[in-house]
Amino acid sequence: MIRSRTLIKWLLVFEAAILVLGLMICCDIIPEWGRWYCPNVTHRLQTEAILHGRLALSDTPSSIGPESGFAWAEDGVQQVSGLGIPVWRFPFEVAARLIGQPGFPDRLAFAAAILIVALQLFNAWLSPIFQNLINQQSAAPKSIDLISSIGLITLLLVFPPFVNLLRTSLGVNEEVLAYVYIYGISLMAGLVGLIRHPSWLKYWCVCLLSGLGGLVRPTLVFYGIITVALAAIWVIFSSRLCFDPIQTQAPIPLKPGSRSISRFISWRLWVGLLGFAAGGLILFYTNQVRFGNGFEFGHKLNIVSGFPGVIYATRFDHPFKHEPSGSAARELFGALFSVKELNGYDAYRPLFFSGQSETVRWRVFYFLTFDWSYAGLVLAGWVLGIWLIVRLLRNQSTDVEQREGNGMSKECIGMALWSLGSAALLATFYLRMPCLSSRYMMDFAPAFAGAIGVFWLKLSTASLQRGWMRQMRNWFFFIILIGWGGAEIAQGHSDNGLHSATWKEVVTKMEPLAGKLNLPDSAYVEGFDFKQTGIPENGRGWENTTNTVAPAVVLFIKDPEYLELEVSVAGGKPLANPPFIRAKVGLELLKEERCERMPHSWLLRFSRPMRAQYQHGIQPLFLAFGPQEELANRRTSYRLLYVSWRPEENYK
To answer: Which domain holds residue 410?
Structure first.
């Protein structure tokens, strides 16, 4: 018996490894031997920083390379893609160094993460079936369960939007979303394991993993909240701490003769909740250290090359913030299910998908995610979940389980509630966000995969026929599932780029940018050569190739005592009204103190930053020109003549 169980475990490991290897090769993530590094070195740089005992990538702003998306905050260069993936890579990098290798392949670390989740799914849905077969129980119903389990695992691991994501260039942004998907599926599988065999240890592990998800990407916090809520409710029911409306069994033992059972159980319940809170506190603390605010993830500080409208919208305001709920909901639904034409990086292209609002918003869709078939399947999964809840609440749970011949009803309820709750929180979050992209829609992928999984499980286990007819029906459904998934993957297309790099290419990108810092002491004037400052992104939006500025301008200043701007319009025409200009140093919005009219221009003066951390050292200055409705324009009508931040006698 022990040999058989060990054989099963190794068989599952082998199958999972073959599946992951096939996924890596078929999606061209590892196109050839040695080309298994991510071409974007952001996560590698962060892991290197952690290896050296720090969070900042560098202590000089000259490291903010073009198109890096880095931020200068708290006297250091910070990346905004989260700490979760670099921390995951950390032990692999340590192991590589110990055996004399310069670095561990990024794609193999990603493959290891998929392998762990695949084993988790195999252990949850395949291992029990094989164990029952070894115990010489009835094989007929188990063969039906086998088809259901294989179909579910195939659906979750080869989910078409996930595969289409892997077929993109899989840069730093796409890599994060790929980790988000497998992390979300892991949370769902952990919740199912807890529902199937409740224990305090499983509950604590689920809570801790739910809390740590935000380190990978902030949107995983929503999945974590729903996971912890459902896990806590389930262990309460399983422990008979309160009335149990769904008639769970009680595998979590109570201490006989205890005088304070409720207090005893609550103590263990709170351990899990504290584990979840600990993950949130780690996220808050690292955000505070890196960006100066525990609730800031860096997206209000990073330099987005080529998109001044994004800097304007994320630092100041944007028109879509005031979009009516109905119109915003239609656009979100359309972005999820109605995008058929990709707009690439034509970010402000109007009306290219059904439901799109006319309000200005940054929209970039460069690979396909979901279509109307997903909408129908997800809705079916949610409806089935609600229907099962209603039946169980009517005290029909025993009858339901007996008639369906399996114990999947409560698992399906958990998966449906997990999917619906997570999708609802994500929809609320994205409803009026200033930016929308196909990769943002991938945040919904774990929730949608869970809902479709519910539909598949109930469809493949429905007791409509008996004997060989039932088996033939399930094989027919399985073929349809594979055909649907294959068709979705086949029609998916994206703006592809280089998937992976060699170590030689990675080393070249990790070399620090040469350049000595040479910031002026007190002012910039029109026509200033920003290259001489040694900061690649300095002067973004105020290039000397044109007379006018972009809607948003990024400057780096040192030891600001105030902020003074002189502004006119192109062509030398006088401004009849005061210009609409706002300024931020870091995260702090500066107060306008004076706006004085000059013969051919306007002089604006802003206050000194109130926060001490922004009064000293090199600081990022963000300027917004014009109303929010015009943030999509490449240039404004404003000319920026000079910017000063210290007394005039220090001008150079």
So the answer is: 318-463
CA 6 to chain centre: 37
Overall domain count for the chain? 2
CA 482 centroid distance within chain: 27
Buried-state track 160-196, b at ≥16 Cβ within 10 A, e below 16? bbbbbbbbbbbbbbbbbbbbbbbbbbbbbbbbbbbbb
- Torsion angle, CA of 119/124/125/126, rounded to 10 degrees? 50
Taking the C-alpha atoms of residue 412 and residue 393, their distance in angstroms, rounded to an integer, is: 15
Assess whether 323 and 456 both reside in one domain: yes
Residue 498 lies in a domain: no
Both tokens of residue 28?
Answer: 């061209």
Per DSSP, the residues of 217-238 read -TTHHHHHHHHHHHHHHHHHHH
**Model pTM score:** 0.92
> How is residue 598 annotated by DSSP?
-
Residue 48 to residues 80, 101, 302, Cα–Cα distance (Å)? 16, 14, 20
Structure tokens at 116: 């762990």
Distance set, CA 444 to CA 35, 49, 451, 454, 472 (Å): 30, 31, 11, 16, 33
Residues 6+ apart with CB under 8 A from 137: none
H, E, C per residue of 187-204: HHHHHHHHHHCCCHHHHH
How many CA atoms are closer than 13 Å to the CA of 475, on its beta-carbon side? 7
3-state secondary structure of 25: helix
Neighbours of 328 (CB within 10 A): 21
Residues 346, 429 within the same domain: yes
Q: How many CA atoms lie within 13 A of 236 on its CB side?
A: 15
Q: Three-state DSSP class for 81?
A: coil
The angle that helices 172-196 and 445-460 make with each other, rounded to 10 degrees, is 40
Q: Is residue 213 part of a domain?
A: no
Report the SS3 class of residue 364. strand
Query: How far is it, in rounded angstroms, from Cα 412 to Cα 235?
Result: 17
CA nearest neighbour of 287 among 180, 214, 207, 179:
214
Residue 359 placed within a domain: yes
Model confidence pLDDT, tens digit, residues 493-544: 655 566 789 999 999 888 776 568 889 999 999 989 998 998 988 999 998 7
Angle at which helices 106-125 and 139-157 cross, to 10°:
150
Per residue in 91-111, pLDDT tens? 999 999 999 999 999 999 999
pLDDT at 395: 62
Domain boundary (423, 448, 463) is at 463
Are 435 and 361 in contact by the 8 Å Cβ rule? The answer is yes
Tokens in use for 447?
């929730």
Query: Does the pLDDT value for residue 328 go beyond 60?
Result: yes
